[in-house]
C-alpha cells in the first residue's frame, strides 16, 4: 500500500472478537488501577489513554484481510507496518485491567501481522514487501516482552503460535545483524534483543552474539562526554571539523535503552558504570520542561521536541539506572509529563502545537512510545529513586558548557537557557539540514518555555514513511540572517565554517559568531556576505546583534521566528516594539530598527520540526544601517 491510499477505508472500529481471556483476572476494583507511586499513576493514565485511542483507530473489517486488525494512521492516511509493536502495551493493559477489549485488539493485531511477514522471518516497516525490514528487532522485543510478562493470557495454542513467529524474527536478527548493520540504534537494540530472547528460548547462540556485539559499546562513546555516535551511514565518517555523527534524540530514546537493558539484564557492573557516565552526558541536553534538545542532531529531521518520531522513549534507560543518579528518575518523569502534554485526541503528537494548528498526530509515535511505558510499569518493583526530588542539570546550571565532540554550547543565565550550534555533520551528506552556522538553535525561558527552536533548514521528507508532510509553507524556524540574490537564498545557518567564541563576564554571557551568508550548495557571498553575530544573555534579557562586517549591501534581514501558538495575542506597541501575550507572561521584543511580521495564510506558521508554531518576526536592515540589535524580555 502506498502512503495516503486508504481514503476508502471506513470500517475502523474495535468490535470484540469474543475470544476468551485466558487466565486473566476479572472484577478489578478501581483502586487496583492506580499506580503505587506518582510516576506509576502518571504512566498508567497515559498508557490507558494511548491504548484506548489505538483501539479506537484499529481497523475492523473482517472481509479485508490486508487491513483487518491494523492500526490506521489518520495523519498519514496509511498503515504503519510496525504497528504490531502495540501488542506489548495492549497485552499489559489486558493483564492490568482484565478488560477483554485489550486482549482482542492484541490478537487482531498479531493476526494482521502476516501482511508484513517476509520469508526470511523479518517484518517490513510498511505493507510494501520491499520496504525496510531492520525494524524487526524492535518488533521482536515488543512481542517478547508481551509473551514474557503476559503470555499467560493466551491459550496454549495461541501462545505457541506467537512464540514460533517470534523465534523466526529473532533468528533473522541473529543472522543479519552484525557490527556494520545500518545505524547504531539497530545494533545496540539488537544487543538486548538477542540476550533477552536468548534466555527466553534458551538459545545459547543468541546470547553469545549479544555478548560479542556488547564488546563494541565503549568504541561508540565519545570523549570527554561519553556521547553515543553512529547515527549515519557510514557510522564513523567524520566531518571537516573531525566530528562524528551524533543524534541526541535517537540516543536517549532508543540506542541507550538497548544497552542499559542489556547491562542490567546481565548484571554487568563495569558496563553499568560506563553507561551511567553516558547517560550523565546525554542528560545535559534535557531542557527543564522534559524536552530533549536535538536541535543539531544528525537525524534532526525527526525531532519532535520530546524526542524523535520513530523511537521509543527514554524511560527504560533512565529509570533502570535511577539508583545511580536520582536525576535520571527526574528525567524519566519530566519526559513522561511532556508526552502527556503533547497527547492530542488520545494519540501522541509530534510536538507542542499540533492541536492549536489543526495538524493530526501520526499513529507511529503512540505505538512506539507505549511499549516503553509498558516496560516501566512491568518493571516498577525493580525501580528505585524514580521521583523528581533531584533536579536535572539544565534546571540548575549557570554559565556555559562546550561539547567539543559536537562544537555545540549550552548556556544558562538566570531564567534563560540556550543552545548555540556550529556542528557540521550533514545527514545523508546532501544538505545542511540541522542547526549549524553558529545559530541560536534553542532559546528557552523558565516562565514561558521555548522561544526559539531550530528546524531543518529546508523541510525534506528524508524518510517519507517516517515523516509527516509539511502543512502550508516551508519556513525555517532557526533564527538567522538571510539575503535573497537572484532567487538564491543565502543565510548563516548553512555556513559549516562559522566560528564561535564565548565570554562570561560581569553577569553577561556573550556568544560571538563570525559567519558568511551561504547557499544550500555551500557557495558564499564572499565579497559582501560577512556578518558578526552576538547573542548576549543576562538575568533580565536576551539580546541579538547582527553586524555587517563587509561592504554594505541591501536586502539583509534578521529573522526571528518566535515560538507562539495560534490564539496568543500580539500587540504592536510601536514600529520597533512587539509584545506576545502568553498565559505565563508577556514576551517583549524591541529593536533599534522597525520590526515586521511576515504575512502567512494562517495566523501562525507551523513546522513539523520540532512540531511548533511561530510568529515570524522580520527585522530588515534599513539602507545605511550596518547593525541591527533586538532585545527579548519576559515580563
TrEMBL record:
It comes from the Bacteria. InterPro entries: 6-hairpin_glycosidase_sf, P29_C, P29_N. Residues 47-395 form the Broad-specificity ulvan lyase N-terminal domain. Residues 400-634 form the Broad-specificity ulvan lyase C-terminal domain. Transmembrane segments: none annotated. This is Uncharacterized protein. The lineage of its organism: Bacteria, Pseudomonadati, Bacteroidota, Flavobacteriia, Flavobacteriales.
Amino acid at each position: 500500500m502506498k502512503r495516503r491510499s486508504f481514503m476508502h477505508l471506513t470500517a475502523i472500529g474495535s468490535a470484540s472478537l469474543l475470544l476468551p481471556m485466558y487466565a486473566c483476572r476479572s472484577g478489578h476494583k478501581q483502586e487496583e488501577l492506580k499506580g503505587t507511586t506518582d510516576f506509576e499513576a502518571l504512566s498508567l493514565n497515559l498508557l490507558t489513554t494511548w491504548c484506548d485511542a489505538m483501539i479506537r483507530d484499529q481497523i475492523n473489517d473482517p472481509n479485508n484481510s490486508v487491513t483487518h486488525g491494523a492500526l490506521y494512521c489518520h495523519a498519514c492516511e496509511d498503515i504503519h507496518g510496525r504497528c504490531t509493536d502495540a501488542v506489548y502495551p495492549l497485552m499489559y493493559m489486558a493483564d492490568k485491567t482484565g478488560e477483554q477489549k485489550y486482549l482482542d485488539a492484541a490478537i487482531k493485531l498479531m493476526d494482521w501481522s502476516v501482511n508484513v511477514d517476509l520469508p526470511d522471518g523479518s517484518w517490513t516497516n510498511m505493507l510494501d514487501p520491499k520496504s525496510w525490514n531492520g525494524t524487526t528487532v524492535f518488533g521482536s522485543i515488543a512481542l517478547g516482552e508481551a509473551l514474557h510478562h503476559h503470555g499467560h493470557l493466551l491459550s496454549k495454542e495461541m501462545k505457541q503460535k506467537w512464540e514460533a513467529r517470534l523465534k523466526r524474527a529473532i533468528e533473522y536478527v541473529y543472522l543479519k545483524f552484525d557490527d556494520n548493520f545500518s545505524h547504531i540504534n539497530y545494533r545496540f537494540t539488537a544487543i538486548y534483543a538477542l540476550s533477552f530472547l536468548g534466555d527466553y528460548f534458551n538459545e545459547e547462540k543468541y546470547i553469545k552474539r549479544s555478548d560479542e556485539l556488547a564488546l563494541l559499546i565503549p568504541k561508540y562513546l565519545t570523549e570527554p562526554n561519553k556521547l553515543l555516535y553512529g547515527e549515519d551511514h557510514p557510522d564513523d565518517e567524520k566531518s571537516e571539523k573531525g566530528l562524528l555523527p551524533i543524534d541526541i534524540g535517537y540516543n536517549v530514546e532508543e540506542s541507550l535503552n538497548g544497552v542499559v537493558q542489556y547491562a542490567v539484564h546481565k548484571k554487568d557492573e563495569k558496563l553499568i558504570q560506563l553507561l551511567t557516565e553516558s547517560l550523565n552526558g546525554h542528560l545535559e541536553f534535557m531542557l527543564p520542561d522534559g524536552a530533549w534538545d536535538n536541535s543539531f542532531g544528525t537525524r534532526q529531521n525527526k525531532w519532535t521536541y520530546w524526542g524523535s518520531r520513530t523511537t521509543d522513549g527514554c524511560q527504560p534507560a533512565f529509570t533502570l539506572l535511577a539508583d545511580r543518579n536520582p536525576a535520571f528518575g527526574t528525567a524519566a518523569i519530566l519526559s513522561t509529563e511532556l508526552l502527556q502534554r503533547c497527547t492530542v485526541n488520545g494519540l501522541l503528537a509530534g510536538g507542542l502545537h499540533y492541536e492549536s494548528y489543526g495538524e493530526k498526530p501520526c499513529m507511529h509515535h503512540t505505538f512506539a512510545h507505549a511499549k516503553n511505558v509498558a516496560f516501566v510499569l512491568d518493571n516498577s518493583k525493580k525501580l528505585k529513586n524514580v521521583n523528581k526530588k533531584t533536579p536535572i542539570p539544565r534546571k540548575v546550571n549557570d554559565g556555559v558548557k562546550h561539547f567539543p565532540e559536537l562544537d555545540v554550547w549550552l548556556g544558562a543565565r538566570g531564567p534563560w537557557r540556550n543552545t548555540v550550534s556550529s556542528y557540521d555533520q550533514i545527514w545523508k551528506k546532501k544538505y545542511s539540514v540541522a542547526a549549524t552556522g553558529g545559530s541560536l538553535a534553542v532559546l528557552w525561558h523558565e516562565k514561558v518555555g521555548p522561544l526559539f527552536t531550530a528546524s531543518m533548514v529546508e523541510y525534506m521528507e528524508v524518510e517519507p514513511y517516517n515523516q509527516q508532510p509539511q502543512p502550508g509553507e516551508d519556513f525555517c524556524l532557526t533564527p538567522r540572517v538571510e539575503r535573497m540574490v537572484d532567487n538564491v537564498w543565502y543565510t548563516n545557518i548553512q555556513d559549516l565554517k562559522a566560528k564561535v567564541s564565548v565570554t562570561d563576564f560581569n553577569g553577561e554571557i556573550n556568544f560571538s559568531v563570525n559567519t558568511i551568508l551561504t547557499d544550500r550548495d555551500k557557495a558564499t557571498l564572499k565579497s559582501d556576505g560577512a556578518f558578526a553575530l552576538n547573542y548576549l544573555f543576562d538575568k533580565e534579557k536576551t539580546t541579538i546583534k547582527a553586524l555587517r562586517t563587509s561592504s554594505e549591501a541591501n536586502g539583509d534581514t534578521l529573522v526571528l521566528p518566535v515560538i507562539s501558538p495560534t490564539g496568543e495575542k500580539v500587540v504592536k506597541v510601536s514600529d520597533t516594539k512587539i509584545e506576545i501575550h502568553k498565559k505565563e507572561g508577556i514576551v517583549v521584543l524591541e529593536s533599534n530598527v522597525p520590526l515586521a511580521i511576515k504575512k502567512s495564510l494562517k495566523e501562525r506558521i507551523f513546522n513539523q520540526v520540532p512540531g511548533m508554531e511561530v510568529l515570524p518576526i522580520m527585522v530588515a536592515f534599513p539602507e545605511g544601517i550596518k547593525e541591527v540589535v533586538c532585545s527579548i524580555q519576559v515580563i
